[in-house]
Amino acid sequence: LQLVESGGGLVQPGESLRLSCAASGLSFDYHSIGWFRQAPGKEREGVSCVSANGATTNYVDSVKGRFTISRDNAKNTVYLQMNNLKPEDTAVYYCAADALCRMPLRGSEYDSWGQGTRVTVSS
């Protein structure tokens, strides 16, 4: 399974972005997908995950009510809709695959990492 992120960019506080994680490979439907982020000088943080069938979603507390994760298995794509962005959301965002969507998101349990997409929130 190979994952490619897109959709990052520079936005002002309060604005929105939608990140995409496009997968190639025959096993996408069997994998949960997680979004992680890493800000400059900080450790990687798990942000959200969605189960293989989309029925289960989880979020880190700092993004609850602002971010929404979803997936379209027909398009082999997972989305992260990010609303009301804050400067502290600035980071490189990565998606990765795992068997289960569970909290806390541990990067060590995920594989097939994408190359990341940069999100900058600044006025």
Q: What does this entry look like structurally?
A:
With 123 residues, this protein is mostly beta strands. The chain has no helices and 10 strands. The strands form 2 sheets. The chain has a 6-stranded mixed sheet with strand order 2-10-9-4-5-6, with no helix packed on it. A 4-stranded antiparallel sheet has the order 1-3-8-7, with no helix packed on it. Strand 5 and strand 6 form a beta hairpin. The protein is globular. The model has no long low-confidence stretch (mean pLDDT 95).
List the helices and strands and how they pair.
Blueprint: E1 2-6, E2 9-11, E3 17-24, E4 32-38, E5 45-50, E6 57-59, E7 67-72, E8 77-82, E9 91-98, E10 117-121
Parallel strand pairs: 2-10
Antiparallel strand pairs: 1-3, 3-8, 4-5, 4-9, 5-6, 7-8, 9-10
Share in β-strands:
over 45%
SSE class: mainly beta
Q: What's the alpha carbon Rg, rounded to whole Å?
A: 13 Å
Strand order of the largest sheet: 2-10-9-4-5-6
Distance between the termini: 37 Å
The count of helical stretches stands at 0
Mean of all residue-level pLDDT scores: 95
Uncertain segments: none
The major β-sheet equals: 6 strands, mixed
Oligomer: single chain
Tell me the series of helices and strands, N- to C-terminal. Answer: EEEEEEEEEE
